[in-house]
């Protein structure tokens, strides 16, 4: 996602749609998007017979009806008809077809509603982030449409090199402060020397700081790195605490981290941040 | 558009391949006869120094195939869960069989078992142990290991082109490792190797085919069996193949390959009936048992305690030959296997063709050994071993209507030659045009002619030895590509399986149903109001 021109928003006919459209409208002032696709996936499977019986009396196919509905909400948010806003409705309950179409379109960014994992209501979003090749922004209901403070977890993996240029771009365009953060991990290879854990920790901190120095020469806009080392807590919990502490309004995280296992289509830290669904937006970079 | 009509290639693959082939042909022609020593040295070096790597690799392929077949990945369907099969299972089996071996089985079907029987790697010649071991070794060379190599390549090609929608060329298989770099120089390099391997693997088959035709003609009509005659035959048949490429193509090849299998079947049936029928059935069972019982010992045997060079001439030659033309067979198998699950695919490709091949070897080679064992002095075996290219005809001479049988044999080899050359040029053309299957016919003619040229040059530069060396030396680099392919396919399957799990997870239907019905009801009431 080196440019931000072609944006996809997944709508699900809920109140979230309006909130997300408003949010995008504000972002548009900063980023000047060129195309916005509103995408809806019709899930006919499991729809009750009563509703199916109502269909014929509508006088038009369901896809057309939903398309009108989505278009109307776009007009409502953006104030007028805008031909750069397009609507795509995926009928037939075929998720694979949707993903295929989506990847062909080569979007720069996909935007999805962030719902906590209660009642399985966030499952669709989490499928999309796993299945597409596109970077994905998760928006919680309470998201504020500005990026003043952005947290970027750094694990010195190849993904770090993908995250930082994006952070740089955002910082230039939206005037944001970038907070790099690194969580120390005591690897198994230190196990025989564990009695000396303070000393090891010092070495690790030094190593991370010197690694970061190299990064900082390439990306001078970064703030100083914060190193988290609460070993008893999981990485996502530590990062979550840090975000709340600096009161950040976005976190940019790689699709995968250092330990990438292809069987997990998304890294475990990103996955946990998404499924815990707090009140900050999460940008998962592919 | 008109300029493109006869030429539409992916330049970074087409030109390096073409130039390397031209260099090879030129060197061999310029050096002439001394080239035979060069081939000998190359072959000895590769088989002595890297033989062990081939032996490990072919066993890795088998283990991998069985693992994939039995594992949870076995349920993945080639072409996605909605894909349907294009051919009936019977038609599929017979296509698998005819694709893999063809000429090779005609050439070696009699010659190989008898050779092992007459010149065993160790122990006494013409004895019962050497006979059973002869069948065992022949089964090893034509059995599971060969088909596991094909299965790996075919499955990778089918998976990445049908499920992942990548172009149908070898480079696509490496997408999980290389990502979009497969479209750059790395992918080009892989495809160049694939082209060279296919071309030399095919040239080996074509060379064997033409040697056998010439051997048959000499046996029947006393024509001299020299490399000059062989090269003239090669030119003649390559031209026929070129005409077949140029004309109606698809239909012609389909017609020929169907009849190839039928005529081969008739030949098999003929020998089965007029030959030692009961012996064939009994030994078929016994040979299979023997093969299964000894498979680990024989397939890991590496000539460690003896330095005979036997293995280089036989086992390693086969492994390298199968590997070198695996892109060809693999692509063919991939094309006909859409809609099969991976489990069906693995066991279909591994078991059925293997059993048919075993039956062929038992009926031809096994019978030859049986007949020879009844004779004092072992003249039959001696005559068969004296010249592999006439082995089939010497054998058929033992039966009634032997002239008819031999003529059928010659025609069969010729027709296999034409179909191999035709479909081989299609495969090479597909790779050199970047995965297009409908590239202009002119290119296919070019490749048909180059295969013929390479085969001719190989015969000129050293006959059978040169053919074997060509297969072995292009097989070696491709061996490493295949090992990488195993890893890449595994990674790809892992991701695919994870994706199918994610897709099949059910959504939150209750909330969605409510919202959908709200929209519908709202519109209904709006519509009613308007009316």
From TrEMBL, chain A:
Source taxon at top rank: Bacteria
Boundaries of every UspA domain copy: 147-286
Protein name according to UniProt: UspA domain-containing protein
CDD domains for this protein: USP-like (cd00293)
Family affiliation: Belongs to the universal stress protein A family.
Organism encoding this protein: Anditalea andensis
């Amino acid at each position: 996602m080196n440019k931000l021109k072609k944006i996809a928003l997944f709508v699900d006919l809920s109140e979230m749609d309006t909130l997300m459209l408003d949010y995008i409208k504000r972002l548009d002032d900063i980023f000047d998007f060129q195309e916005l696709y509103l995408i809806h996936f019709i899930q006919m499977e499991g729809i009750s017979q009563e509703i199916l019986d109502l269909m014929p009396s509508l006088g038009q196919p369901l896809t057309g009806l939903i398309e009108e509905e989505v278009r109307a909400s776009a007009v409502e948010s953006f104030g007028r008809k805008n031909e750069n806003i397009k609507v795509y409705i995926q009928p037939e309950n075929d998720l694979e077809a949707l993903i295929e179409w989506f990847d062909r379109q080569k979007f720069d960014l996909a935007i999805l509603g962030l719902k906590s994992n209660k009642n399985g209501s966030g499952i669709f979003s989490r499928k999309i982030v796993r299945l597409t090749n596109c970077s994905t922004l998760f928006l919680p209901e309470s998201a504020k449409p500005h990026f003043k403070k952005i947290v970027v977890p750094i694990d010195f993996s190849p993904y770090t090199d993908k995250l930082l240029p994006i952070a740089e771009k955002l910082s230039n365009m939206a005037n944001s402060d970038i907070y790099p953060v690194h969580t120390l991990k005591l690897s198994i290879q230190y196990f025989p020397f564990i009695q000396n854990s303070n000393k090891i920790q010092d070495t690790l901190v030094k190593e991370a700081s010197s690694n970061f120095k190299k990064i900082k020469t390439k990306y001078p806009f970064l703030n100083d790195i914060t190193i988290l080392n609460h070993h008893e807590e999981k990485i996502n919990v530590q990062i979550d605490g840090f975000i709340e502490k600096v009161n950040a309004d976005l976190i940019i995280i790689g699709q995968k981290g250092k330990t990438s296992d292809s069987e997990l289509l998304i890294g475990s830290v990103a996955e946990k941040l998404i499924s815990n669904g707090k009140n900050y937006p999460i940008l998962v970079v592919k | 558009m008109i300029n493109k009509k006869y030429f539409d290639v992916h330049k970074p693959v087409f030109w390096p391949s073409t130039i390397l082939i031209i260099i090879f042909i030129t060197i061999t022609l310029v050096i002439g006869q001394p080239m035979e020593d060069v081939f000998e040295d190359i072959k000895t070096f590769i088989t002595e120094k890297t033989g062990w790597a081939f032996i490990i690799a072919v066993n890795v392929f088998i283990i991998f195939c069985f693992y994939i077949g039995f594992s949870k990945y076995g349920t993945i369907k080639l072409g996605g869960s909605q894909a349907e099969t294009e051919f009936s299972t019977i038609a599929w089996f017979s296509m698998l069989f005819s694709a893999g071996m063809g000429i090779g089985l005609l050439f070696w079907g009699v010659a190989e078992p008898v050779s092992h029987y007459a010149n065993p790697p160790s122990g006494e010649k013409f004895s019962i142990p050497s006979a059973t071991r002869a069948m065992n070794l022949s089964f090893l060379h034509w059995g599971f290991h060969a088909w596991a190599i094909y299965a790996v390549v075919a499955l990778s090609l089918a998976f990445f082109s049908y499920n992942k929608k990548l172009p149908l060329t070898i480079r696509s298989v490496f997408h999980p490792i290389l990502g979009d770099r497969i479209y750059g120089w790395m992918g080009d390099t892989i495809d160049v190797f694939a082209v060279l391997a296919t071309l030399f693997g095919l040239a080996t088959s074509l060379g064997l085919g033409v040697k056998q035709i010439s051997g048959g003609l000499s046996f029947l009509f006393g024509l001299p069996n020299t490399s000059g005659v062989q090269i003239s035959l090669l030119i003649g048949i390559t031209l026929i193949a070129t005409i077949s490429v140029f004309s109606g193509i698809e239909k012609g090849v389909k017609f020929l390959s169907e009849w190839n299998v039928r005529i081969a079947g008739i030949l098999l049936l003929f020998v089965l009936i007029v030959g030692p029928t009961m012996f064939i059935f009994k030994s078929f069972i016994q040979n299979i048992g023997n093969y299964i019982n000894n498979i680990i010992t024989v397939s890991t045997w590496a000539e460690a305690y003896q330095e005979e060079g036997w293995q280089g001439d036989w086992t390693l030659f086969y492994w390298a030959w199968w590997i070198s033309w695996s892109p060809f067979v693999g692509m063919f198998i991939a094309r006909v296997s859409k809609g099969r699950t991976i489990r069906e695919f693995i066991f279909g490709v591994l078991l059925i063709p293997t059993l048919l091949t075993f039956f062929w070897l038992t009926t031809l080679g096994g019978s030859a050994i049986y007949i020879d064992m009844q004779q004092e002095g072992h003249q039959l075996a001696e005559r068969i071993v004296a010249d592999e290219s006439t082995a089939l005809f010497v054998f058929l001479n033992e039966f009634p209507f032997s002239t008819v049988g031999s003529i059928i044999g010659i025609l069969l080899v010729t027709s296999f030659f034409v179909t191999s050359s035709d479909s081989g040029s299609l495969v090479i053309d597909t790779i050199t045009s970047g995965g297009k299957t409908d590239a202009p016919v002119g290119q296919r003619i070019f490749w048909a002619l180059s295969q013929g040229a390479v085969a001719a040059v190989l015969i000129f530069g050293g006959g059978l030895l040169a053919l074997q060396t060509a297969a072995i030396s292009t097989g070696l680099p491709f061996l490493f590509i295949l090992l990488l392919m195993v890893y890449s396919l595994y990674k790809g399957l892992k991701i695919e399986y994870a994706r199918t799990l994610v897709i099949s997870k059910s959504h939150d239907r209750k909330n969605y149903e409510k919202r959908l019905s709200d929209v519908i009801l709202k519109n209904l009431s709006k519509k009613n109001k308007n009316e």
